[in-house]
Design goal:
single chain, alpha/beta, Aspartate Aminotransferase, domain 1, seven-stranded mixed sheet
Length: 484
């Protein structure tokens, strides 16, 4: 379309002209050349507001939005931590934003070099040399690894191995990924310490076992102390071990999964390497695998040849799972984060995450029941006490009340192995002052619960919309738009 209709529309909207009464010759000139299906029969009923009114409107809306830059976001297992602004500035620079995935590799050597070095960094951090930056999210990383496992088994003629064992403390997306990859899921129960039950695992291993998917640290915030034995048992049964690396932020720089027997894992870059998170993206879930699984990774992967960096598909690749070569600007942010911290910095990051979680656990354990009240990793799980339950207080009431006190609720009702679970993850980016204030809020809610304060059943009372029937809202949402 030419610029002429745009210019005429702009002129018609200047002071003294009303766009909603745009008719006659001006209208004819403005729509000249437009397809008939794109032309309105009647002008839109657009409101006429001053700039200040519009600015105030959007400012009020922004104040209703909750973000990590406004307050504490203790979502257990989701790791909502601060993203350094310097990484955002880097990713917004024109040399990067002006690139296109259809460009010849010779024209994007700098970008390919970043991706190649990020692959090397992730391989070093995990102890797994085969890396693909292809997957768009952690869940797609799970699916990618399982497809690689299936292709590896098929290449060996082991088509009878179609069972994946998953501890009941694993992330909830694991079973869905298994089903999509064509595997059958068998659950392994936890023992009384919240860890994978080794006897139960041993009883389930057989000739149909393709592998084990284990989250480590698990969703109870506990490191699997028997992980070396677990890997040995699965390997002896002919299977491979996949580790859900969503909680890698608790052990990065301290231990490497490849060193204690893991064969495959994915990494959530937003959790460990501080890239943007929320709204379903933007995301990246790189997958790292052992040497003998690398030929099956999806392509393209970045490799270094005689004439520079190039894109190539592994020889027995499972193929593409998405378009392009990975979410490059997210990968760039992660690369910048790793380079700024280095290996020692990543270790300090993990140590701070563990310290913060344990500090908050101890601050809360006098008012709340912590089922596994011992040294945790990056997060811990609590729940209301028996006395609170007798007052009719449920975890949902606690979550809604925390909104009134200025905090986003933690993850609730997960993991499923703990009834009425409240999963809290402070991350390494929060200060002691923030943790103290949140602990005070948690303890205040506990006091209100014990005295049966009716406000817990009414909460939230400070928000534009109060408590809704969430089950009904899902099935019968009210999506009407109001201008007021």
């Amino acid at each position: 379309m030419s610029e002429r209709p745009i210019r005429l529309l702009f002129e018609a909207s200047r002071p003294g002209r009303r766009c909603t009464t745009y008719r006659g010759a001006d209208r004819a000139r403005a729509i000249e050349g437009l397809p008939a299906r794109e032309v309105r029969e009647h002008p839109p009923q657009l409101p006429e507001n001053g700039e200040l009114d519009i600015v105030r409107h959007f400012t009020r809306l922004s104040r209703r939005n909750y973000a990590i830059t406004t307050s504490f976001y203790p979502l257990g297992s989701c790791t909502m931590k601060y993203n350094p602004v310097v990484n955002e500035v880097l990713a917004a620079e024109n040399p990067w934003t002006g690139l296109h995935p259809f460009q010849d590799p010779g024209e994007i050597q700098g970008a390919l070099a970043v991706m190649a070095r990020l692959q090397d960094d992730l391989a070093e951090a995990t102890g797994l040399p085969g890396v693909t930056l292809h997957p768009a999210a952690g869940a797609q990383g799970e699916l990618t690894a399982l497809m690689v496992l299936r292709a590896w088994l098929d290449s060996r003629g082991e088509t009878e191995r179609r069972t994946i064992l998953i501890p009941d403390s694993a992330h909830g997306t694991n079973p869905a990924s298994c089903t999509l990859a064509g595997f059958k899921v068998v659950t392994v129960k936890s023992d009384d310490r919240g860890l994978c039950d080794l006897e139960a695992l041993a009883s389930l291993l057989d000739a149909t076992t393709a592998g084990l998917m284990i989250t480590n640290p698990n969703t109870l915030g506990l490191f699997e102390e028997g992980i070396e034995d677990i890997c040995r048992m699965v390997h002896e049964a002919g299977g491979r071990v996949y580790m859900d690396g969503a909680n890698f932020n608790a052990i990065a720089g301290i231990t490497r999964p490849g060193d204690f027997g893991i064969d495959m894992m994915h990494l959530n870059l937003h959790k460990t390497f501080s890239t943007p998170h929320g709204g379903g993206g933007p995301g990246a879930g790189p997958v790292c695998v052992a040497d003998d699984l690398a030929p099956f990774l999806p392509g393209p992967r970045v490799a270094e040849g005689e004439d520079g960096f190039l894109l190539e598909d592994p020889p027995q690749s499972v193929g593409r799972l998405r378009g392009w070569h990975g979410n490059f600007l997210v990968l760039l942010r992660a690369y910048a984060f790793i380079r700024r911290l280095g290996g020692p910095g990543l270790r300090r990051m993990a140590e701070a995450a563990v310290l913060n979680a344990n500090y908050l656990r101890v601050k809360c354990n006098s008012s709340w029941r912590v089922p596994f009240d011992r040294i945790c990793m990056h997060e811990f799980v609590a729940r209301p006490t028996k006395a609170m339950k007798e007052k009719g207080i449920r975890t949902l009431d606690v979550a809604k009340r925390l909104i009134d006190l200025g905090y986003h609720p933690p993850t609730i009702y997960f993991p499923l192995v703990v009834a009425e679970a409240i999963m809290v993850e402070p991350t390494e980016t929060e200060s002691k002052e923030t943790l103290d204030a949140f602990a005070d809020a948690m303890n205040q809610v506990a006091e209100e619960a014990l005295r049966g304060d009716p406000i817990l059943h009414a909460a939230p009372v400070t928000t534009p919309v109060g408590r809704v029937d969430e089950a009904r809202a899902v099935k019968d949402p009210n999506l009407c738009f109001r201008c007021s």
